[in-house]
Specification:
CATH architecture: Up-down Bundle
Distance between the termini: 24 Å
CATH topology: Glutathione S-transferase Yfyf (Class Pi), Chain A, domain 2
Number of strands: 0
Largest sheet: none
Structural class: mainly alpha
Helix content: 55-70%
Number of domains: 1
Shape: globular
CATH class: Mainly Alpha
Radius of gyration: 15 Å
Order of helices and strands: HHHHHH
């Protein structure tokens, strides 16, 4: 369904190569989100270990890949907003709720986040009382 919506609203790249990259970044963001989403179901005695694991993987594996993807552009793929950018914004917001300083060594991701938050529809979505709820 998300691929359909992304295609319908021009958030799925201009060709097959861009779609493959969008899928790659999207799946990476979803992998990280899945780890965060399971936290409420983690037994209390394992919660700190799980948090440490998430933070380590985010800093060592996921965020460096996203930082590299933003090296030459304000978007992960091509020169326009894609589904991957939306997923990246959501996962970094989730990470910051758990680890407020996690982006301190990722300047490209920080700049990306500010640009995304400045988009009118995203800004509206992030306002208090919107559909997005913190954990």
């Amino acid at each position: 369904i998300l691929n359909y919506i992304a295609g319908k609203y021009n958030l799925y790249g201009k060709d097959l190569k861009e779609r493959a990259l969008i899928d790659m970044y999207t799946e990476g963001a979803i992998d990280l989100m899945d780890q965060i989403i399971t936290l409420p179901f983690t037994p209390p005695e394992n919660k700190q270990k799980q948090l440490s694991n998430i933070e380590e993987k985010a800093k060592d594996r996921y965020l460096p890949a996203f930082e590299k993807g933003l090296k030459n552009s304000q978007f992960l793929v091509g020169n326009q907003l894609s589904r991957a950018d939306v997923h990246l914004l959501e996962v970094i917001l989730m990470l910051q709720e758990l680890f407020p300083t996690i982006l301190s060594t990722f300047p490209k991701i920080q700049a990306f986040q500010e640009k995304m938050k400045a988009l009118p529809t995203v800004s509206k979505f992030l306002q208090p009382g919107s559909a997005r709820k913190p954990p």
